[in-house]
Amino acid sequence: MERLPIEDWQAALAGMEAGLADAFAALDAHESRLGQAPAAPPMAAESLTAAERLAGFASTWEARLAAAAETAAEAERLLTDQEAAAMRWAEAFGRWRQLVQQQQAGA
Hints:
Blueprint (H helix, E strand, L loop, with lengths): L5 H29 L15 H57 L1
Helix pairs in contact: 1-2
């Protein structure tokens, strides 16, 4: 009777655990960054025209939007990586289940 690949399973489970820990760490980092807004540029309001103040606010919002776009791109990459890992894990579990069922049917 064929032996079940227990060592392979344990290694794959350790990889899953590490992948999940990395994903949680990345989520924590993203939550932390989302809570941080760029500081508004220091302006002496009385010395600036309305157009200059608006330009200052616009540049602040452009910086915020650029940071949000970078965060969104990084989150998308992480989600794609995690989705690929989850698919690999699902395939591995499916193969393992088949092996266990074959082992049980042979017993």
